[in-house]
Fold this sequence. Notes:
- This protein is of the alpha+beta class and about 550 residues long.
- It has helices at about 5-15, 20-35, 35-45, 75-80, 85-105, 110-120, 290-315, 530-540, and strands spanning about 65, 135-145, 155, 160-170, 175-190, 195-205, 215, 220-225, 225-230, 240-245, 245-250, 260-265, 270, 280, 320-325, 335-340, 345-355, 355-360, 365-370, 375-385, 390-400, 405-410, 420, 425-435, 435-445, 455-465, 470-475, 475-480, 490-500, 515-525.
- Helix 1 (about 5-15) crosses helix 3 and helix 2 (about 20-35) packs across helix 3.
- The longest helix is centred in the middle third of the chain and has 25 residues, at about 290-315.
- The chain is elongated.
- This is FecR protein.
- It comes from Aporhodopirellula rubra.
- InterPro entries: ConA-like_dom_sf, Ferrdict_sens_TM.
Amino acid sequence: MNDRNERLELIRRCLDGEATNEEIAQLEELLQADSGVRMEYLRYLNVDSVLAALPNKRESAAERRVDAAPQLQSCESRWPRFFGPAGWLTAAAMLLFSSALTLQSVKRDQSQVQSQRTQGIVAKPTAVRDRGVAVLTRTAGLQGAASTNWRIGGTMPPGLMKWDSGLLQLEFYGGATVVAEGPAEIEILDESRVVCRAGRLRARVPEPARGFAVLAPNVELVDLGTDFGLDILDNGSVEVHVFDGAVELFDVESNRDLTTRRQLNAGDAVSVDRDGTSKPVASRSADFVTPSRLNRMSNFQHQQTHRDWQSFRDSLRGDPRVVAYFSFEKNSSDDRVLTGYGSNGTVIEGAIVGCEWTHGRWSSKSSLQFKRPGDRVRLTVPGEFESMTYSTWVRVDGLDRMHSSLLLTDGFRENAPHWQIRRDGNLVLGVKHPGNNAINYQARSIFNAFRLGQWTHLATVYDSERSLVKHYVNGELVKKHRLKSIASGLLEIGNATIGNWSEPESHHQPGIRNLNGCMDELIVFGEALDGKEVRRIHEVGRP
């Protein structure tokens, strides 16, 4: 193996528990025979950020082979399982080599360090850039095609926002808070400027956000530290109401020419016609929704959607396809038991280990929080199935581990799937097919910095009849794979873990795969659901 990138990929697969036995043996031979490979291996162990430098193009765009070996976390836990009986001499030699390498590194000049970095041995993490300028924090009765993609807590970049009815609240990075009511068309320019072409809005602008500006068809409004409202009427005129503080008005497209400047103070209200002429009008503060009023409206809507979801939850008890359902509602008599049900309504109890209860998608609903390496829920799901569908509502707060468990079967048995999220944000269904052929069916880059902290619906369908694996995010199909031709036999779960991973043999030390976040619903169907059914689960459960 002469290609350096291939060697790095082989090292990564062995240390991340994704290599076959043949690949492990291949790396051991390379380490024994080649000092250069030993150097690469040691650097990989000592420089965690090299993960970012591995070339994605060397990974298949659809799936990668995986192995049953657990994720290996330290030199102590890696070496005993990595080397055979003859490998201990190699390990000792590598330790001596590591000491020599440390002495050499002290003498290494700056040009050598720079050369290695440019070769990709040492890579600096790439900074994630934020294109957002505001955060969507509340909604009530929002309707419109584009609005289905807007998420509470989501960052909003510059661009157009258009919706048919309902209210939303934007909190701009500069500090201004805007409540807008549809039908509306607003274009966000940056953290301190918006264009309002249609609709009604109310802005609360504290001192740090002073200078916040709204451009309307007939006028430009510049805040001087205030609470104001702006309403674009059907006849084309624009009303400006100042509830507190003061604002400046300029003729539209005048580049804030001071000769066009007018100041309005608290209690003032004017109507500006298409030609720019203005006249006083009666102030009507009650027509402009405040943030506190929107909060009450939003809470009322959440109560209704929670009730709708409860009706859906109850309807699943009669669905014979459900083999495991957990609503993550706190058991009042024993809060260390996660109560669910399986086929024919049989009770399934999960043993909660370490996790803590917190609020879920709605403030009136509970969820389980997974944070520490030991946090998990142990359960047993009986039965064998030709096809399966996984569905969960999860809030991922961080991707701290190489793998973050959603639902993992013990060990990695044949036809006992692993459903998890990788550190790079990929959603993965790993299945060991007959003949020790394990495949990762992946949907790439599902989670990034801007989806963290948001409630997200995930679903993965293993459809043996159509030979497909399909991944859904928030009701939308994001990736479809053909099953490998070697796929055969019935799927099973058996002993498994929610939010972590367990090995069946106590002398094995499994890699840490705890979820960092919260889960408040998990459903496993013994059949393949279609896209319409997956969308229904998302729609009825969307907070």
